[in-house]
Amino acid sequence: MTDRQIQIVIDSFWPLLKAGLMYTLPLAIASFVLGLIVAVLTALARTSGIRILDFIAQFYVWIIRGTPLLVQLFIIFYGLPSVGIILPPFVAALIGFTLSVGAYGSEIVRAAIQSIPKGQWEAAYSIGMTRGQALKRVILPQAARVSVPPLSNSFISLVKDTSLASVITYIEMFRQSQQIVARTYEALVLYTEAAVIYLMFTSVLFVLQGWLEKRLSRFSAQ
Question: Where does the record place the ABC transmembrane type-1 domain (predicted)?
Fold first, then answer.
C-alpha cells in the first residue's frame, strides 16, 4: 500500500465504523425484532389448523422466499411511489428486511414447534390448559431454545445483508464506503476495509452466539 492509501484507510475508518454503529446495526436489530414477531405469528398461523390462516401464511412465505431480497427492496422503494406510496430509505429498508426475516424465521419457529413431542401437548391439556395456554407456558418456551442457534445465524446474515440497503440510498456502512470511493477512487482499499469492519461485527456476534448457546444448553441440562 502507498502512503496515500494508508492515510485513506486511517481517515475513513471512523466514518465507516460510525456508519456501522449508527445505521447498519440499528437497522439490523430493528428488522430482526420486528421480523421475529412476524415469524412467530406466521408460524402460529401455519400450525393453527385453520385453513385460511395457513393459506395466507404459506402464500406470504412463498412470495418472500421465492423472490430476491434486492428485488423486494426495489419494489418497496422505487416501485411503490408509482402508486403514491413514498417511503424514506430507512422505512423501506426496515419493511423489506422485516418481511424477509419474518418469512425465513417462520420456518425455523414452525419447525421448532413441531419438534416438541406431542406428549407435551397432551400433558398440558390433561391439566386443563387451553391450546393458547399450552403454547404460551409449555410449547413456545421449549421451541425458543431450539430456535436460538438458527435464529442467531439469521441475525448474523441480516447484519451482512443490510449492505443491500445501499441500493435504495440508505447511508449505512457500505453506502458510506461507496461515497468515499467516489471521492478517492480507491475502490479496492475501501471496500476491503468495509469488509474487515463487517467481519469485526460478525465475529463479535459469533462469540455472543456461542455464549448464548452454552447458557441455554446448561439450562436445559439442569
Answer: 21-209
**Which stretches of the chain are DSSP H helices?**
3-19, 25-46, 51-66, 69-74, 89-115, 118-126, 131-134, 140-161, 173-184, 187-221
Per-residue pLDDT tens listing for the chain (222 residues): 788 888 989 999 999 999 999 999 999 999 999 999 999 999 999 988 889 999 999 999 999 999 999 999 999 999 999 999 999 999 999 999 999 999 999 999 999 888 888 888 888 888 888 877 888 888 888 888 888 889 999 999 999 999 999 999 898 999 999 999 999 999 999 999 999 999 999 999 999 988 887 877 665 544
Terminal CA-to-CA distance of the chain, rounded, Å? 54
**Are 197 and 16 contacting, i.e. CB atoms less than 8 angstroms apart?**
yes
Distance CA 75, CA 81 (A): 9
**Phi, psi dihedral angles at 84 (to 5 degrees):** 90, 10
